[in-house]
Design brief:
Blueprint lengths: L2 E5 L13 E5 L6 H37 L8 H27 L6 H10 L2 H9 L9 H6 L12 H4 L4 H19 L1
C-alpha cells in the first residue's frame, strides 16, 4: 500500500515510540463521488458553453454580415436585418443543438468544437451571397483549407466568434480533461 508519512510533534499525544511519524494510506482510486462530481461539472460547464454558443452565433452573423455588406445592395436595412435574423436562428437551431450534444462528451476534443463552429460560416455566407456582396481576397491556404468561405469569415478561435466564448471554452476544456482522466483510471 502506498503511504504518506506525516510528521507529528510530541504534543499530539501519540505513542512516542513511533518517533513522531504516522503512515496514512493514499487514496488509490478516485471515489465514486469524485467521479460523479466530475461528470456533473462537465455537464454544467458544457451547458454553459453551449448556451454561450447559442447566444453568440446570431451576434457573430450580424457582425460579419454588416461588416461586409455594402450600402448599395438593393435591399433596405430592415430586409437585411430579417435575413440576418433568419440566418442567426437557423445557426442556433443547427449548430446550437449539435454543440449541446457534443460538449457533454468527455471524449470531444477542443478542435472538434472549433470545427463545428467553423461550419457555421455558411449562414453569413448565404446572406452575403444573396445580397451579392463582393467576395474577399484570400490567400492560397485559405482557398485550400476553406474553399466555400468566399468571404473569409471562418473563425480560427473562439474569440473570432465572440470574446464571451473564451472563458466558457476554457472551463469546459478543463472539466472535460478532469472527467476524462477519472474515467481512464
Amino acid at each position: 500500500m502506498l503511504t504518506n508519512s506525516i510528521y507529528l510533534n510530541h504534543r499530539s499525544g501519540l505513542d512516542p515510540s513511533q518517533n513522531g511519524v504516522v503512515d496514512q494510506p493514499f487514496a488509490s482510486e478516485p471515489t465514486g463521488s469524485r467521479r460523479i462530481a466530475d461528470e456533473m461539472r462537465l455537464r454544467e460547464t458544457a451547458l454553459r458553453f453551449a448556451d454561450a454558443i447559442y447566444v453568440a452565433l446570431p451576434i457573430w452573423i450580424d457582425r460579419t454580415v454588416t461588416g461586409q455588406v455594402g450600402t448599395d445592395t438593393g435591399f433596405s436595412d430592415e430586409e437585411i436585418a430579417v435575413f440576418i435574423e433568419r440566418a442567426g436562428k437557423a445557426a442556433q437551431a443547427d449548430i446550437g443543438s449539435t454543440a449541446r450534444q457534443m460538449l457533454g462528451d468527455a471524449t470531444t476534443k477542443p478542435a472538434q468544437v472549433l470545427e463545428l463552429l467553423q461550419t457555421a460560416v455558411h449562414y453569413p455566407t448565404g446572406v452575403l451571397h444573396y445580397l451579392q456582396a463582393s467576395e474577399a481576397e484570400r490567400g492560397a491556404f485559405a482557398q485550400t483549407a476553406w474553399p466555400e468561405d468566399i468571404y473569409s469569415l471562418t473563425p480560427k478561435s473562439m474569440g473570432d466568434i465572440d470574446e464571451s466564448l473564451e472563458e466558457p471554452f476554457i472551463r469546459w476544456d478543463a472539466a472535460r480533461k478532469l472527467a476524462g482522466a477519472r474515467r481512464r483510471r
